Each structure stands twice: as structure tokens, then as C-alpha cells.
Amino acid sequence: MPVSYDAVVLGGGAAGLYCALTAAQRGLRVLVMEHGKKAGAKILISGGGRCNFTNEEALPTRYISQNPHFAKSALSRHTHWDFISLISQHGITWHEKKLGQLFSDQGSKAILQALLDECSAAGVTLLTDCSVTGVEYGGGSYQLATTKGDFFAPKLVVATGGPSIPKMGATGFAYDLARQFGLGVVDPVPALVPLTFSNTDLVFMKALAGVSLDSEVRCGTVGFRENLLFTHRGLSGPAILQISSYWHTGEPLVIDVLPGVPDCAAWLRSVRAKNPQLQLVKCLQEYLPDRFVSAFLQLYVPEAADVSLGQMSNVLIDRLVSELKGWTVYPVGTEGFAKAEVTRGGVSTADLSSKTMEAKEQPGLYFIGECVDVTGWLGGYNFQWAWSSAWAAAQAL
Ligand code: FDA
User: Fold this and answer.
1) What is the pLDDT of the chain when averaged over all its residues?
2) What is the reported pLDDT for 330?
3) Do 237 and 169 fall within a single domain?
4) Residues contacting residue 390 through CB under 8 Å, at least 6 positions apart
């Protein structure tokens, strides 16, 4: 016998659970369908197990979308304070790590448990290990054929995320469903992802695998000052993950490895005047890791690799500074969906209401969370989008 609900939510991740509990608190009979064995897998691994559940400055400008205004409505109506208020009722405390990033003191498990407890208290039915095999719409109702029977509901919320980390059950299901109902999909690509390199760049980077340094990484007009990490495949670390969301194939990255020394040439000249015997390598080690300094000089400014400051002309200082503050590299790609924290692109915002997340031309069909073409910076922005967009949809169900 087909079972009917007021709303069915596909995907038991951050957005799906939050939408379900909010709608059920409003009195709706809600079913969440999750194809994994357990709900909330990405919440559990997020923030290294501590869940960076929001950011105090989740401004719309920190989200990438073909429509930069789209996220404004949901983000302004349901803020980080609303989510904090919910988790506080579950005894969860939190701290800011840096840059407005809020982490749970009790870890990711406590955040997931709070969401599951809220769902259960509000009477949400959660069906795990359940795959949808077909979705039809007719007579004002969605009919879902699944591995656990048939279900009906006048409202269908798609919260199945994006394809990042497929081994955790991530799929492009939302895009297929969007296309089935005539919505556009902005080409999904890996974001918040390490970047790969070839040739000389890669030999240099591999030799420095494990080294991390403060940097400002720019791509076009966008820049991030955070740590950069050398890896066996290229570059990673927060600065690189952030810029990866803005990088397109063929574009260079321009990296300042001395962002803390704005006038580097003046600094080198003044140290040269006081201590001409000082080796350049030693001088740079005040700000940069030893291994990086030697390798960088040998590759990019070999004539300065083995000199004292007194042996450096102003011209050589200027050349060195332009290399250190404008180190230009050309990524050849990313480490792909297997390593991407999120997906850029997704269900086109042109076909959704920013107030309700409902499809403009398909009544009762909603898309929320990561499957929508709204991608946040690293640092709690993506969970805040999941909470805000889920809440916005739940008000309209
Ligand atoms: P999410 O992917 O969470 O949930 C979708 C659910 O749908 C999954 O449970 C999936 O199994 C299910 N599903 C998929 N296809 C289905 C189908 N066909 N039928 C039924 N169910 C289906 N963000 C942040 O703000 N702070 C952080 O600390 C981190 N940390 C982090 C670490 C790592 C390693 C990753 C990979 C990602 C993060 N993120 C993050 C990003 C964050 O996890 C992500 O933005 C949200 O989980 C998105 O929430 P959604 O609910 O939209 O998708």
C-alpha cells in the first residue's frame, strides 16, 4: 500500500534533516529518505570531527553562484544565531577557531545527534538504506517508487547534496531530478579542493610535501590569506582550497609567500645595511620555512641562492621580491570530486524562488543545500547555507 505524507525529503544530510525537523515542528507529517545506512555522514566527518557548523560572518558575498543575490533571502531570514539557539538547547557549546568559524566543543556527533533528536521529537519518519527508483508527478502529488515501497506527497524536497566524496554516498541525483522536471543545472565542478600541477612545478612541490606557510593566494581579482600546504600532487591547505572555488582551467595563481612583510624590498635593504654578512637564506628564514627558502631560491632566483645580503644589488633584491610576492603557478587541474569538500554549480537558481527554494515552474518541488548552485567559502559557510535554505523551504511547505 502506498504511504502518503505532507512532505517527503530526499537526502538525510544537513539540509534534509534540518528541513524535516523544521517542517515537522510546524505540524507537517514528514518522511526523510536516505539511501545511506545512516543519516548525516558528512556532518560526522566535518571540521575534522568537530563540525565547523557555521560562520559568524556568513555574508552573501562569501558564496559563489551565477546569481550572487540568490542566497541573500534565506541567509538573512535564518542566521547562525538561529542554529546556535537550537544546538544550545541540546547543551552544545561552541568556540570560534579563527575568521568567524564556529566549532562544536562536543564534536560533530553531538550536532548530528541534536538534529536526529529534534527530528524524532517532532515526529519525522527517517527511512535509511532506501533508494528512489522513480519519481512521477500527477494530480498535485509526487509519487515515489523506492526500494522500500511507494510513497506519495504533495511536496518533494530534494536535499541529496552534490557529487563530492562519492565513496560517502554522494550522488548527482538532484541534477537528474532537476533535469527531469525541466530545471537547468549549472555545470557541477569540484570546489574547496586541492590543486594539481605538472612538470617543474610538481617536482618542486613534491620535494616540499608537508611544508606549510602563510600566504596570500590570488586568482584574478579574488585573494585569500591563509596557510598553503605543499603535497605530493601539488598544493593544498586553506588558502588553496578557498581559491580553488574561483579557479578555472588555464588561469594562473599569483602567490605572495611573504604577506606579513608588505614592503619586502625595504626590509631586505635595511637588514643589509645593518648586517651585510648575513646570508640571504638565514634572513628569509625569519619568515619562511628553511626547506622552502633553499628550494625556492635554487629554482627561481639561483643567483641569490648562496649570497650574503651585502653581495646583493638593489636590482637583485627587487627581482627576488617580485618572485616571492608574485610567485606565479599554473595548476593543471584539481584532485576531483574524490577530494572536494563541496561542489560548485548545481541546480540553477534561475529556476528557483530564493524565498522558498521551490521550483518556479514545478509546484511542490524544492531544492535545498549543496545541490543548489550556491557554494560557500571554507569555514562553516556551507553548513549555514544548508540550515538557511532548509529553513526557508520548510516555511513554505
Ligand atoms: P549532504 O551531502 O550533507 O547530504 C546529502 C545526503 O543525501 C547524504 O546523506 C547522501 O547520502 C544522501 N543522498 C545522496 N543521493 C541520494 C539519493 N539518490 N537518495 C537518497 N539519499 C541520497 N561544511 C561546513 O560548513 N563546515 C565544515 O566543517 C565542513 N567540513 C567538511 C568536511 C568534509 C570532508 C566534506 C566532504 C565536506 C565538509 N563540509 C563542511 C561541507 C558540508 O559537509 C556540505 O556543504 C553539507 O554537508 C551539505 O549538506 P547537504 O545536506 O546539502 O548535503
Assistant:
1) 97
2) 96
3) no
4) 14, 15, 16, 18, 19, 22, 159, 368, 369
What local confidence, expressed as pLDDT, does residue 2 receive? 72
Q: What is the value of pTM for the model shown?
A: 0.97
Distance 42 CA to ligand 1 centre (A): 5
CA of 3 to the centre of ligand 1 (A): 27
Which percentage of the chain shows pLDDT scores above 70?
Answer: 100
Domain that holds residue 28: 3-189+341-396
How confident is the model at residue 299, as a pLDDT? 95
What's at 395, amino acid-wise?
A: Q
Which of 78, 80, 86, 81 is closest to 110 using CA atoms? 86
65 and 170 in a common domain: yes
Domain count, the chain: 2
What distance in Å separates the CA atoms of residue 9 and residue 15, rounded to the nearest whole number?
A: 9
Query: Ligand 1: does its nearest atom lie under 6 Å from the Cβ of 33?
Result: yes
Cα of 131 vs centre of ligand 1, distance in Å, is 17
Ligand 1 neighbourhood includes 46 CB (under 6 angstroms)? yes
Per DSSP, the three-state class of 104 is strand
Which phi and psi (to 5°) does residue 328 adopt? -110, 125
Mean pLDDT in residue range 164-172? 92
At residue 228, the pLDDT reads: 98
Instruction: Check pLDDT > 90 for residue 169.
Output: no
* Same domain (yes/no): 109, 164: yes
pLDDT of residue 26: 97
Ligand 1 and 34: CB distance under 6 A: yes
Would the ipTM clear 0.95, i.e. be above it? yes
Cα(54) to ligand 1 centroid in Å equals 14
